[in-house]
């Protein structure tokens, strides 16, 4: 395996844009071994991106929870349901 | 084992029962749609469309999934159409261009460092306790609604509905590199918005 050059390492070690990109990518897809190393190296020296990573995961969970909670809470009004039922019945009687 | 199981055929046929769809699933489908598109009238229309589409292709129901799952999958496809039409509002060539909007300088253009205004700080929401926090929920909701339509569609399809990335790219007509850029920027701006509004 090709070794990371010193300039490559310096670059990622200080590049929060790239580190956060890899954090996002890793959450939903796989990143390469090299990318994993780069990210690990960055996070060792950057507590700000560690905070970002924690918050990012919480945001995903919260967003899912938000929508799924709403998914069981709302009700359709009875009038509209009666109308729907009529449509279904009509359709089925036609055949 | 090669013999066709006639008993399961009977069960499958029984499993589809359109007369009871409205009483059993209308509320559920409505909630599912309304919680995702924030437009109650449109959500009602989608439920109606879903039932009509399901009636038309009920012969194709194979009983491999439950009736509820099957109806939900029809609704999901209709929701994707909504996401697509919403996010292509300014789209004239079938390719999205709003990805080129400057990214608000979250990072220093030269060295990739966080810029002061967007630098993450501990907010006390880094643990699972945050999931019970109503105020956090409210702010997150507001911040999500501030995202550009295409970004919100990508974010929702990926993180809430857990669709496959390839499918999202295909449905929303974006390249895979744009997909990753949107995933990244959506999160960075959501997080920044949360921090700004968090007391």
Overall description:
Chain A: This is Zinc-finger. Chain A: It comes from Pedobacter insulae. Chain B: It comes from Pedobacter insulae. The complex is a heterodimer of chains A (95) and B (199). Chain A has helices at 6-14, 16-28, 33-45, 47-70, 78-94. Chain A has 95 residues and is an all-alpha fold. The model of chain A has no long low-confidence stretch (mean pLDDT 86). Chain B is built from 8 helices and no strands. Chain B has helices at 6-15, 21-37, 40-56, 67-87, 134-146, 149-160, 165-172, 176-197.
Our count of domains of chain A comes out at: 1
Number of helices of chain A: 5
Rg of Cα set of chain B: 21 Å
Structural class determined from secondary elements of chain A: mainly alpha
Strand proportion of chain B, as a percent range, falls in: under 5%
The major β-sheet of chain A equals: none
Query: Could you say which overall geometry of chain B the principal axes of the C-alpha atoms support?
Result: elongated
CATH architecture descriptor text of the largest domain in chain B: Orthogonal Bundle
Q: Which pair has the most extensive contact?
A: A-B, 45 and 56 residues
Query: N-to-C SSE series of chain B?
Result: HHHHHHHH
Mean pLDDT of chain A: 86
Distance between the termini of chain B: 64 Å
Shape type of chain A: elongated
Number of domains of chain B: 2
Instruction: Kindly report the CATH topology of the largest domain in chain B.
Output: Arc Repressor Mutant, subunit A
SSE order of chain A, one letter for each helix or strand: HHHHH
**Helix content range of chain A:** over 70%
Structural class of chain B, please? Answer: mainly alpha
Tally of individual helices of chain B: 8
């Amino acid at each position: 395996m090709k070794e990371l050059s010193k300039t490559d390492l310096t670059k990622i070690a200080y590049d929060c844009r790239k580190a956060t990109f890899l954090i996002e990518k890793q959450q939903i897809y796989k990143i390469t071994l090299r990318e994993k190393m780069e990210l690990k190296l960055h996070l060792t020296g950057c507590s700000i991106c560690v905070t970002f990573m924690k918050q990012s995961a919480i945001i995903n969970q919260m967003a899912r929870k938000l929508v799924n909670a709403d998914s069981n809470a709302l009700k359709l009004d009875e009038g509209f349901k009666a109308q729907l039922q009529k449509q279904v019945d009509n359709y089925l009687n036609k055949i | 084992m090669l013999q066709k199981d006639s008993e399961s055929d009977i069960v499958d046929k029984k499993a589809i029962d359109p007369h009871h769809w409205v009483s059993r699933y209308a509320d559920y489908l409505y909630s599912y749609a309304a919680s995702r598109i924030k437009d109650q009238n449109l959500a009602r229309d989608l439920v109606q469309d879903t039932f009509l589409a399901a009636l038309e292709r009920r012969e194709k129901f194979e009983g491999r999934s439950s009736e509820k799952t099957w109806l939900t999958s029809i609704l999901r496809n209709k929701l994707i159409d909504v996401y697509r039409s919403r996010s292509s509002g300014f789209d004239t060539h079938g390719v999205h261009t709003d990805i080129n909007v400057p990214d608000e300088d979250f990072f220093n253009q030269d060295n990739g460092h966080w810029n002061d205004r967007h630098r993450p700080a501990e907010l006390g929401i880094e643990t699972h306790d945050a999931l019970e926090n109503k105020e956090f929920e409210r702010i997150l909701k507001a911040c999500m609604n501030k995202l550009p339509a295409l970004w919100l569609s990508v974010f929702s399809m990926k993180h809430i509905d857990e669709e496959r990335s390839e499918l999202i790219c295909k449905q929303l007509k974006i390249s895979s590199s744009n997909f990753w850029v949107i995933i990244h920027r959506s999160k960075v701006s959501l997080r920044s918005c949360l921090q700004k509004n968090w007391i």
